[in-house]
Design a protein that fits this description.
globular
């Protein structure tokens, strides 16, 4: 999804003029590029669990946090295409909602197609589709309403989800189908907080330096709070073992270990605070970097971030093809990692996206989605 604002008629552009246009927030592209490559690294590299107080584990920061950054940036994109600081209203709001709903449907179908390749990753696109739909009622709101709602959800929903996740349903065939259909590896009751955070900060006016610096400061404070409390909890309380056949579900003692943690993919309160803050800080840093000449050094990563859907889907399709040819099995993660594919994937992604952005313009899937949305849901 483009981060161009919804105001004014779209102007056709391509090459460097589009990638570095005055209306485009280069820092958002940079942050998305980092998120895409971070998710790729989390999939293809064997990395330790990130523990802030242990420097030898710091490369493991990409686990879980890259996808949270990706989800937060989805909220930013939704905010920017629905008016930026001033939310669209009236007919423009109706058009924006219908186009986002259509994009959600396309993302859901594309996500299931990628799941069907058998590549052993938790494909984020079905969850994205659900999150897009959940964001629709919030489009008219401004930051002063969105950010408190996001904060409340980040504190409450990890508890609710920890209880739901313990229900016997998830061990059944129906539960597995529901998990796949809704992308519940990234549970929407928790992850909507990240999307609304992104939507809220998009309403602040991301082109302003004061806002960018504020994002860095607040994001770092939240990250320090979440991860600091996680380190404290780990230091004073050993992990609590809960029997696998304990179906009590609603017992607070049973869900405490799942809630008071910032571990990757844990969906705990401390993770929501710490990793959500980390995502906000990264966005602020990227926006500040792109106010300097360093924006040109970062151009290849910005190119990846200008077409995140194409880059993400292309990587998984290439993975499936490579694994099928070399290993005869698309689902063998360890043997595929043994081929050391990450350097090649990262290099090809960066080079291909840069060449496409400079020579052609919008990514192929982004351009196709935009064209479909404009045809099916025209402005009236």
């Amino acid at each position: 999804m483009s981060e161009r604002r919804a105001t004014g008629a779209p102007r056709p552009a391509m090459g460097l003029g589009r990638l570095d246009g005055a209306e485009r927030l280069a820092g958002i592209d940079l942050a998305r590029g980092l998120a895409v490559l971070g998710m790729l690294a989390a999939h293809l590299l064997t990395l330790p669990e990130w523990i802030p107080e242990q420097p030898d584990t710091w490369l493991g920061i990409v686990h879980g946090r890259s996808s949270i950054l990706f989800a937060t940036l989805a909220g930013v994109s939704i905010g920017l295409v629905s008016g930026g600081r001033t939310p669209v209203a009236g007919n423009a709001l109706r058009v924006a909602r219908r186009r986002l709903a259509l994009r959600a449907a396309v993302l859901w179908m594309l996500g299931l197609a990628l799941v069907a390749t058998g590549v052993p990753v938790y494909v984020i696109l079905p969850a994205y589709a659900v999150l897009f739909l959940l964001a629709l009622p919030f489009l008219p709101l401004r930051a002063r309403a969105l950010l408190p709602v996001a904060a409340a959800l980040a504190l409450v929903m990890p508890v609710a989800w920890a209880m739901v996740a313990r229900l016997p349903l998830w061990g059944s065939a129906g539960g597995e189908m529901l998990e796949t259909a809704l992308g519940l590896w990234y549970p929407f009751p928790v992850w909507i907080a990240y999307v609304l955070t992104g939507l809220g900060i998009a309403r602040l006016g991301l082109e302003r330096m004061r806002v960018q610096a504020l994002l860095v400061g607040i994001g770092c404070a939240l990250a320090a709070l979440g991860y600091g409390m996680d380190a404290l909890v780990r230091g004073i309380r050993p992990p609590v073992a809960v029997a696998a056949d304990d179906a009590s579900g609603g017992a607070w003692e049973a869900v405490v270990p799942d809630v008071w943690t910032a571990a990757a993919h844990s969906n705990g309160i401390l993770g929501a605070v710490g990793s959500g803050g980390f995502a906000v800080a990264v966005i602020g840093v990227c926006l500040l970097i792109c106010r300097t000449p360093a924006r040109w050094v970062a151009l290849p990563l910005r190119a990846v971030g200008s077409m995140p859907l194409s880059a993400y889907a292309g990587q998984l399709v290439a993975w499936a093809v490579w694994a099928a040819i070399v290993l005869g099995d698309t689902g063998d993660l360890e043997d595929f990692r043994a081929l050391d594919p990450f350097p090649a994937f990262a290099l090809v992604t960066i080079v291909a996206c840069t060449a496409w952005a400079l020579l052609i313009g919008r990514g192929p899937l982004e351009a196709g989605m935009d064209r479909l949305a404009r045809v099916v849901v025209p402005r009236r």
